[in-house]
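REQUEST FORM: STRUCTURE PREDICTION
Request ID: SP-0412
Submitted by: Lab K.M.
Chain count: 1
Length (residues): 48
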Amino acid sequence: MLGVCTSDMFFVYILPGWEGSVANGRVLRDAISRRHRLKFPHGKIVII
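STATUS: Completed
RESULT:
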């Protein structure tokens, strides 16, 4: 599962459906390549 939230802790994107062990990069690539993809402003990414 991938969850993206604002600095105010409001979820703005959720991608469920990944089971088991998978690399973070693979989930992020999948979120960016989907029809309703993850969009973000340039230079505003914080990965925790």
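NOTES: The helical segments are 24-33.
Reviewed by: T.R.
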